[in-house]
Structures are given as C-alpha cells and as structure tokens.
Amino acid sequence: MGKHEKNTKFNKKNAMMDLIFLLGVFLVIISFYVALAIRGQKQKSVSENRPLAKIPQFSFKEFFSGDYQTNLENSLIDQMVFSEKIKTNMTSKKAQTVNDSQKFLMSAFHYGEEDTKQEVAQNQDTQETPKKEVRNIKYIPISNGVYHYGNSEYMVFKYRNLEKNKEKLKKWADQYNKYFSDMDSYFYLVNISKGINFNTVDETENEFLTYIKSVLNFKGETGLKISSYEQFKDYFYQTDHHWNYKGSYQGYCDIINMIYPEDELIKPTGTKTYDVYYYGSNARTTSIYTNKEKFTVYEFDLKKYNTKINGSYARYDNHYLYENGTYSTEKGYNHYGVYYGGDYAEVIYEFDQPEKENLLIIAPSYSNANNNLIASHFNKTYVIDLRHYYNTFKEVFNPTEYCKKNNITKVLVMISIDHMTNGNFDLEE
Questions:
Q1: pTM score of the predicted model
Q2: How far apart are CA 113 and CA 138, in angstroms?
Q3: Do the domain assignments include residue 182?
C-alpha cells in the first residue's frame, strides 16, 4: 500500500513538471508572436545575405505533407528576436578562435609561406636552360568554406577539380546547346577563385574554360583572364565573391569585343570612393571584419534608359543613394547588391534604339554590375536570373518561347562554374 502511495506522489510530481514545461513553451511561443507583431517580420538577413523565411499560412495540404511544419520551423529560427545577432556572434567567436590559432601556427612553423622549386626545362637547340617557378603556397581554412591563400588577407574559395566536375559541366552544356546552339549565342565565364588554382595559374587559358569550349556549341566563348594571384586581387573584392569595379568592367569589355568587336566601348569618366568600409559575403559568412577596403566604383556617362523589374517599371540601381551620401554604414551591409541592383527573376533594359538588336542575358548576380553597360549596345536587353524565375512567375522558363515573344536575336550566358554545377541554372527539359 505504501508503495502504491509513493508511485502516486511520483506521478503527480511528473505531471506538475510537465505542466510547468508546457507553460514555459507556451509563454515562449506567445512572446515570439507578440514581439513579431510589434517588430514585424524581417525580410532579409544582412549577415547571411539571403531572404528570411516568413511565418507560413496554414493549409491542410501542406500540414499533412509536412511542408507546413518544415516552413514553420525555418521561420521560427529566422524570425526569432536577436536570432541574427546570436548567429553572428557564434560564428564570429568560432571564426576568431580558428583565425588566431592559424596565425600562431603559421608564425611558429612558417606554414603558408611560399615554398618554391625550380624546374629546369631542357632545350637541346640552345645551351640556355629556362627555369620555371613552381609555387607551393597553402590554402588556409578560415570558416564555412572560406580560405586565405597563404598569408594573404584576401578571402577566397578552394579551387575545384576539373575532372570531378566534367560530368556536371557536360550535362549543363548539353541543355544550353539544345536551346541556343542554333542561335547567335555567346558564353562568358566569370572566373572566380573556385575555378583557379593560384599555385598553377599562368598565362594560358583557364582549364575550365578550355573544357567548356569543347562541349558548348556557341558562336563565341571566352572568360575573365586571370593569369596570376595578383591579377585576381585586382579584379575581386577582398571579402566578397563578386568581382569589383575593375573586374566587372573588364568583363564588359571582353563581352562586347566578343559580340560586337567593331563597337566603341563605354569609357569610365572617373572613379569614386565612398567613405565606408565594404565587408562582403565572405566577411559576413565568417563574421571576420578585419579587412579595411573602401567601396569604390567606376562612374559612366550613359544614355538615358528605362528598366522594368518583374514586369513593372522601376529603377534598378541605387547610385543616387551613394551620390547623395544616404547609404548605410552598417557593418556587413551589402553595398555591391544595393549600389548595382539586387537579384530579380527578370530585369529589362530599354535603350530605345530600334535599329539595334535585342539581347537575352542569363546570369546570376555577377552581371548586376555591368548589365547596363552591355545593354547600351542593344535596343532591349532581357536579363533572366533562373534562381528566381519560377518562384516569381510560377512557370518554368522556356528559352524558345521567350526569345520568340520578345524578338531576341542574340543570347549571352554570363556565369561561373559554381552556378553551372549546382543546378540553379539548369534548363528544364
């Protein structure tokens, strides 16, 4: 009997603890929704440079499929008060610890310093023996797939292996050949660090571009020429995966010289450096803000034009915010995306030059910085970002129908190997 009474007391205690726990969970949930009602739902994460998940609307279909629960969980994580600050602080602490330990090891063991060898090239015709320098600089991991190349402060990615990516590249090329090989089509490789081994890069053509040329049947194929690590640093931001004003302008020059070699290029009227440090996507990803790079752009005197964003007339770039001095100075602010313009499913440039052709550009955010320069050589230019097309228009992008509908006679695909292999720029069969 006594034993039965003991169990009864024990069960009552458990029930009380369960009740307290449920009340605590209920209060947390209620507090979350109250804070959300006061603050509103956040649209975008500055540190992660991505749109945040919003509280989903309930539907029985999504509930029974499990999608509602997944979307709700993602929204609770994204919309939680101080969530971004917490994630940023955690990433920062982790990255700083790794960074400090790496600096100590590199200093103690001279790790990451250049170890060069001299290879002698035999020349039987002459007595000269030219020497070739072989670099052996280590890639030092920082955090979240971001590296330093030796003791350089630039943040880069580790280069990819061509052989391991040939199958994906061939599949991608076959899709684009199907739709565009019979058109006046051009390809431009945005040569980011994921496609460059800085220890072997030289004056020859990038090996990824060489392979793409062998499987892509376009009228013209070329890419951003990177023949040394120093040249890479000249063309790209210190802490961002995007090319800077010099790199994007070089891309524009290469593209027009490929499509219209007789056309006169738009020349910069000058450069402008704004009094704000630019910490790009790699700094935001690692939460390391040690590089001090001012945000600099080229200025141009372009003919007036109109832009349509997802079907409605609207201004695309935000140059005026910088010209007026009303830009944000928040650490980690995405100046590249704000100054040049954001990522949309469709942006149309209208230069009102009916004697010229219409162009289709398929590209991710790399083209944001030079779309207007390229478009100035055409009547209308249609820029499609396949990452957002279906979600915006609720239909699959059909290249054949789109080109016919808009009287498009030329096509430019401006892309990096990253987007050719991750599936985001695949064309539906």
A1: 0.77
A2: 7
A3: yes
